[in-house]
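Sequence, please.
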């Protein structure tokens, strides 16, 4: 799994921005051919912009993770991170395979239930769930797995947990979890080491035996050592509290292989699967290790397909104006670079090009890199690795939501048609009526 670090070569020699060299994102010819073929088929059925998702790459991601963790001392269970890709066909594909789902909100919980997930197949994480979970916790909700995030949440949910025989645990905040914008500050999630013991005692006094210990790092975890340090810290907190969990829930996102930052550093450059051999020694009663790797699993299963509406040739820069972009469809492009394909395929001399969306914001830049000068208005662009966090962060900035197309078992299904003006205005302009 380990990738080789690749960076842009050369630096601007003045304040004027110069074009970086093209990046080799590392997709195989088979992957590129797969998405070109599917996008060409979908364009015949639905107007751009649209998201195109496929079930085929998902199994590959799970198989890759299983192979990387084959030396784990205990079984590993993969939970589908619903927040990463809240897409009904994805949940409908995942559930019949007997795979469980992790949710962090009321809407995700209701989506899981409506899809057919049974309570024992649902893991509830996230903060402040005591404000919504009791309203849904009827007698059919027996056997949920719930990780408490605060002492007030724990106390409020204790009656439900006891009555409905929930499998419960606590989320711990480790030193490896911090605010990425302010690294010196902690996040708002979980129990500190000092808070953990009172929380565990409260569960025991209520006659509930906690079974899960949970921690979450962040997305695009840079190295396996970060996981390993977090596991050791969690083990120390559990030992001090005389708590021996049955399930170790390791939240946090393994980085996908084919995305990089704007300086050209690949997020997976230094990443390999964390070594879990110590888990059995640190947690003697451990039965399973749980993973919720939404980005690693889902990113590869989707692309964004847009059309070039206009072309402007400016000194030192070619500009492509498209009907989809960062503001509406791909917020992650503000810090990530993904492979960008042209349909039909264009060759020839490459020039420094910026790909813009259609909104009236300079921020609306999907990509800025060398692209073939032969790209013209009417061509289509395919932005890869668009299966993680794109639908949750989609906007209606002066436009309707994009169409969504799902591919499974060789066929395409329009899961969501493009949003019409009446639908857009009915939502965005309701207060103006």
């Amino acid at each position: 799994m380990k990738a080789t670090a690749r960076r842009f070569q050369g630096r601007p020699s003045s304040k004027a921005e110069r074009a970086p060299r093209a990046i080799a994102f590392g997709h195989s010819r088979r992957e590129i051919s797969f998405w070109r073929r599917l996008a060409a088929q979908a364009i015949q059925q639905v107007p751009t912009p649209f998201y195109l998702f496929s079930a085929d790459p998902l199994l590959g991601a799970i198989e890759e993770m299983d192979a990387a963790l084959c030396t784990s001392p205990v079984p590993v269970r993969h939970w589908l991170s619903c927040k990463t890709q809240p897409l009904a066909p994805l949940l409908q594909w995942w559930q019949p395979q007997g795979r469980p789902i992790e949710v962090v909100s009321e809407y995700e919980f209701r989506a899981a239930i409506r899809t057919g997930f049974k309570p024992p197949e649902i893991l509830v994480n996230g903060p402040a769930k005591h404000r919504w979970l009791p309203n849904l916790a009827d007698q059919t909700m027996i056997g949920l797995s719930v990780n408490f995030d605060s002492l007030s949440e724990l106390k409020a949910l204790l009656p439900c947990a006891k009555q409905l025989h929930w499998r419960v645990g606590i989320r711990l905040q480790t030193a490896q979890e911090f605010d990425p914008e302010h690294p010196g500050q902690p996040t708002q999630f979980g129990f500190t080491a000092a808070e953990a013991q009172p929380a565990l005692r409260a569960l025991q006094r209520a006659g509930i035996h906690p079974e899960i210990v949970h921690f979450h790092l962040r997305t695009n975890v840079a190295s396996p050592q970060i996981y390993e340090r977090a596991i050791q810290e969690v083990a120390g907190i559990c030992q001090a509290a005389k708590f021996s969990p049955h399930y170790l829930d390791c939240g946090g996102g393994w980085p996908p292989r084919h995305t990089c930052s704007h300086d050209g550093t690949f997020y997976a450059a230094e990443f390999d699967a964390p070594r879990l051999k110590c888990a059995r020694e640190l947690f003697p009663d451990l039965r399973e290790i749980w993973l919720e790797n939404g980005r690693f699993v889902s990113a590869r299963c989707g692309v964004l397909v847009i059309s070039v509406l206009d072309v402007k040739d400016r000194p030192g820069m070619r500009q492509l104006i498209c009907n989809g972009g960062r503001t509406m469809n791909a917020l992650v492009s503000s810090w990530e670079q993904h492979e960008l394909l042209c349909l039909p395929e264009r060759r020839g001399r490459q020039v420094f090009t910026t790909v813009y969306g259609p909104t009236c914001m300079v921020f609306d830049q999907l990509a800025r890199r060398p692209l073939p000068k032969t790209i013209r208005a009417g061509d289509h662009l395919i932005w890869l690795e668009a299966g993680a966090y794109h639908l949750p962060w989609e906007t209606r900035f002066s436009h309707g939501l994009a169409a969504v197309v799902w591919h499974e078992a060789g066929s395409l299904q329009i899961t969501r048609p493009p949003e019409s003006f009446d639908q857009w205005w009915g939502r965005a302009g309701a207060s103006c009526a």
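The longest strand covers residues 302-314.
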